[in-house]
Automatic annotation (TrEMBL):
Keyword list, A-Z: 4Fe-4S, Glutamine amidotransferase, Glycosyltransferase, Iron, Iron-sulfur, Magnesium, Metal-binding, Purine biosynthesis, Transferase
Source organism of this protein record: Paenibacillus baimaensis
Protein name: Amidophosphoribosyltransferase
Entry-linked Gene3D superfamilies: 3.40.50.2020, Glutamine Phosphoribosylpyrophosphate, subunit 1, domain 1
Catalysed reactions, as listed in the record: 5-phospho-beta-D-ribosylamine + L-glutamate + diphosphate = 5-phospho-alpha-D-ribose 1-diphosphate + L-glutamine + H2O
Length: 496
């Protein structure tokens, strides 16, 4: 065994005092990209808080660190936020106090630094126009620049969130109408964002001009719904209405109903490719494209680009299952559950020995020996970040008796950090930015390795041709960022 493989194997799997401490900021065992955040909004329903609760449940995969709901009843705000999962933060007692017909809510994934309740959203502010609550998914690439200017003018910040930057811009606006103040504020920021703003009598939704973040509108009877993914509408009995258009500003109030406006023209369309590859739930539709179907097409395309003779195909759960099914269908090689995810391995409060730490990945993932023993296995995964997880899973399959392990990745090599709301390491920590594909194959102990081509990915997603990269953001693969990136742009989510 090479020294490089030994080094990867011996890396400590815990970053804190116990397994999964500070789970939200990085999962030390399954080296995946960090989820973003999720937003859910309701306008015009007497059970707005309850709908938000179930909507957030459906979006829990987008953030497991904190959750919050803010409700307006026409006169005042009521809100509750807390650290933990939705079911841990909310109960019958606090939900029944959240009365009102309009609400915005949020699940958060921390991508840097300490988890803080102060950063949990929705953030609630008081300014001359009254109460204002804000929830967002995304990251402002010029937040540090704008924040410095605001501080020079006397602003005092209470959180480290990009969201507060926008609140200060709104508070400094000369406009008294919230929609005009929001327009003015959003014209001063850059990056990726899906915003929900709530006042005592209005709800405002806005999507960045590039449409980098997913954002959809739904209906439930006469009520309007907003969410990061369509799966949240299914959870509350609602129906998908349409996607929010990049640069669009939607305003809802009792007097005018829904007003469709804009704060910016559409710029280069660039929806996040990783939503299709990894982040979104398989039952969601994004820009009228079903996520499960797109991932199956990625698997089929992988099979066409890099067929290998094998006995079984298995996917790394959960996001790679669809691509694995597609690979199996295309090749005729049987798909099997060769890897099983333990769904109850969350936070633990024991401090294991170093020997147990080195086996810790098995707390989250197990190989099915009877399926893989004596077999040539094709292992499908959605991405390789640092390479540590891929090595552990390949070795796990070998320990379970696999005679060969061929790794196929349903995305191009991840070589560049994301500045738009995904938790990614620095470029120097991304294995594909430092090594050739052959060197990565050796590092993860695979018999063969292939990454889906960028052209294959874009065709699999299936968005219309004509726009740059078919309207997808592919910066993590090709360094083609659709917005200006400053030296101060932070990697990760603006919720921090």
């Amino acid at each position: 065994m090479s020294d490089e493989i030994k080094t990867l194997q011996e890396q400590q799997l815990w970053t804190g005092n116990y397994y999964n401490e500070d789970m939200g900021s990085r999962d030390g065992l399954l080296d995946k990209l960090g989820e973003e955040c999720g937003v859910f909004g309701v306008y015009g329903h007497s059970e707005a808080a309850s709908l938000s609760y179930y909507g957030l449940h459906a979006l829990q995969h987008r953030g497991q660190e904190s959750a919050g709901i803010c409700v307006a009843d026409g006169d005042s705000f009521k809100y509750h936020r807390g650290m933990g999962l939705v079911k841990e933060v909310f109960n019958n007692d606090n939900l029944t106090t959240l009365t009102g017909a309009n609400s915005i809510s949020h699940v958060r994934y921390s991508t840097a630094g300490e988890s803080k309740l102060a950063n949990a959203q929705p953030l609630v502010f008081k300014y001359r126009g009254g109460d204002l609550a804000i929830a967002t998914n995304g990251n402002l690439t010029n937040a540090a620049e704008v924040k410095r200017k605001l501080e020079d003018m006397g602003s005092i910040f209470q959180t480290t969130s990009d969201t507060e930057v926008v609140a200060h811009l709104i508070a400094r606006s000369k406009h008294t109408e919230i929609e005009l103040a929001v327009k003015e504020a959003l014209l001063q920021v850059e990056g990726a964002y899906a915003f929900l703003f709530l006042t005592k009598d209005k709800l405002v939704a806005a999507l960045d001009p590039h449409g980098l973040r997913p954002f959809v509108m739904g209906r439930l009877g006469n009520a309007y719904l907003f969410a990061s993914e369509t799966c949240a509408f299914d959870a509350v009995g609602g129906t998908y209405y349409r996607d929010v258009i990049p640069g669009e500003l939607l305003v809802l109030d009792a007097k005018n109903g829904l007003v469709e406006d804009r704060f910016s023209p559409i710029k280069q369309r660039a929806i996040c490719s990783m939503e299709y590859i990894y982040f979104a739930r398989p039952d969601s539709d994004m820009d009228s494209i079903n996520i499960h179907s797109a991932r199956k097409r990625m698997g089929k395309q992988l099979a066409q680009e890099a067929f290998v003779d094998a006995d079984v195909v298995t996917g790394v759960p959960d996001s790679s299952i669809s691509a694995a099914i597609g690979f199996a269908e295309q090749t005729g090689i049987p798909y099997e559950l060769g890897l099983i995810k333990n769904r109850y391995s969350g936070r633990t409060f024991i401090q294991p020995s170093q020997e147990l730490r080195e086996q810790g990945v098995k707390m989250k993932l197990s190989a099915v020996r009877s399926i893989v023993a004596g077999k040539r296995v094709v292992m499908i995964d959605d991405s390789i970040v640092r390479g540590t997880t891929s090595l552990r899973i390949v070795n796990m399959l070998r320990e379970a008796g696999a005679t060969e392990v061929h790794v196929r990745i349903s995305s191009p090599p991840f070589m560049n950090p994301c500045y738009y709301g995904i938790d990614t390491p620095d470029r120097k920590e991304l294995i594909a930015a430092q090594k050739s594909i052959e060197e990565i194959r050796v590092a993860i102990n695979a018999d063969s390795l292939y990454f889906l081509s960028k052209e294959g990915l874009l065709n699999s997603i299936g968005r219309p041709k004509g726009d740059v990269n078919q309207g997808n953001c592919t910066a993590c693969f090709d360094n083609m960022y659709p917005t200006r990136i400053t030296e101060e742009s932070e990697v990760g989510c603006g919720c921090d």
